[in-house]
Amino acid sequence: MARTRHARLDCAPGCPVEGTLQMIDGKWKGVVLFHLLSGTMRFNELRRQLTNCTQRMLTRQLRELEADGLVHREVYPEVPPRVEYSLTARGRTLEPVLLALKAWGEDHVIAPEIPAGEVELTLVPG
Amino acid sequence: MARTRHARLDCAPGCPVEGTLQMIDGKWKGVVLFHLLSGTMRFNELRRQLTNCTQRMLTRQLRELEADGLVHREVYPEVPPRVEYSLTARGRTLEPVLLALKAWGEDHVIAPEIPAGEVELTLVPG
DNA sequence: GCACATAGTGTCAAAAAGGATACCGTTATG
DNA sequence: CATAACGGTATCCTTTTTGACACTATGTGC
């Protein structure tokens, strides 16, 4: 179970907002869910996308997402081990949320990714 | 400054998602921002909307939101004290995010508010 | 004087989240 | 045998967040 921010969510008209945040607010969950939007990924594949994410933390967050029914974990009987993660149907419904978060972040938190070879200088008022 | 989930946000394409979550993920921030969408509110007015929210926590979260430029705090030279909170222009840009969070929460986390007088029984499979 | 209204602040403790490290299991290969 | 690949787990520690409690400021009315 993800973090329990609120023991009960019948507090006010805004509670659904908090309820959703309760599902996705662990460190790395947002970006993990975002990556899985584009398709199934294996553990290390995911991890390589996440700079500075430890194995321990990734495992924890994935297990919580799985427990909350947002992520599906498929174990293949192979050696070396092969485990794939994908969004559940329920997890897929988070797409509008994730895209909204991404859009806002790009506009207000960090500069968007700049494709290689396309460098643009931006002057920031002193 | 709100919680520092990530020291740096240049880690991957999904980082804007984490960047936005970093701004709004304190307990009560989501629901506070949501309420302020509909207009300016005073401290206790806000608090009455938030079941179980302590004065201390509300103050803390409001101060963080203010520091991050999402909320404007207006102090009136009156007694009793009168302080009003409202969304900044920057805070207003979070509307799509907040509405997406609310929509998902209503559909997947909790039942939506039922207007008084309109009671509907829902059977949950054992 | 006291009580009331409003909106806090300071401080410490408890709870929760995140981090570090060592270790594990399986099979395949040289 | 050692090493590699992959995806973990256990355990303890550190840091952060939240909660509890006491206290604060101002003017007004009784």
The radius of gyration over CA of chain A amounts to 17 Å
CATH topology annotation of the domain at 16-100 in chain A: Arc Repressor Mutant, subunit A
- Assembly context of the chains: homodimer
Instruction: Estimate the global geometry of chain A from the Cα principal axes.
Output: globular
Give the integer mean of the pLDDT values of chain A.
Answer: 83
Count of DSSP-assigned helices of chain A: 6
State the order of secondary-structure elements of chain A, H for helix, E for strand. HHEHHEEHH
CATH architecture of the domain at 16-100 in chain A: Orthogonal Bundle
CATH H-level superfamily title of the domain at 16-100 in chain A:
Winged helix-like DNA-binding domain superfamily/Winged helix DNA-binding domain
Which features does this protein show?
homodimer, mainly alpha, Arc Repressor Mutant, subunit A, 3-stranded antiparallel beta sheet, 6 helices, 3 strands, 11% strand, DNA-binding
Topology:
Two copies of one chain form a homodimer.
Chain A: H1 15-24, H2 29-37, E1 41-42, H3 43-49, H4 55-67, E2 71-76, E3 82-87, H5 89-92, H6 95-108
Antiparallel strand pairs in A: 1-3, 2-3
Chain B binds a DNA duplex (30 and 30 nucleotides) through residues 3-5, 26-27, 42-44, 54-57, 59-60, 75, 78-83.
Quick rundown:
The first copy, chain A, is mainly α.
Folded structure, characterized:
2 copies of one chain form a homodimer. In chain A, strands 1-3-2 form a 3-stranded antiparallel β-sheet. In chain A, a hairpin with a 5-residue loop joins strand 2 (71-76) and strand 3. The longest helix of chain A has 14 residues, at 95-108. Chain A has helices spanning 15-24, 29-37, 43-49, 55-67, 89-92, 95-108, and strands spanning 41-42, 71-76, 82-87. Chain A has a domain at 16-100: Orthogonal Bundle (Arc Repressor Mutant, subunit A), CATH 1.10.10. Chain A has 126 residues and is mainly alpha-helical. The model of chain A is unreliable at 112-126 (pLDDT under 50). The N and C termini of chain A lie far apart (46 Å). Helix content of chain A is 45%, strand content 11%. Chain B binds a DNA duplex (30 and 30 nucleotides) through residues 3-5, 26-27, 42-44, 54-57, 59-60, 75, 78-83.
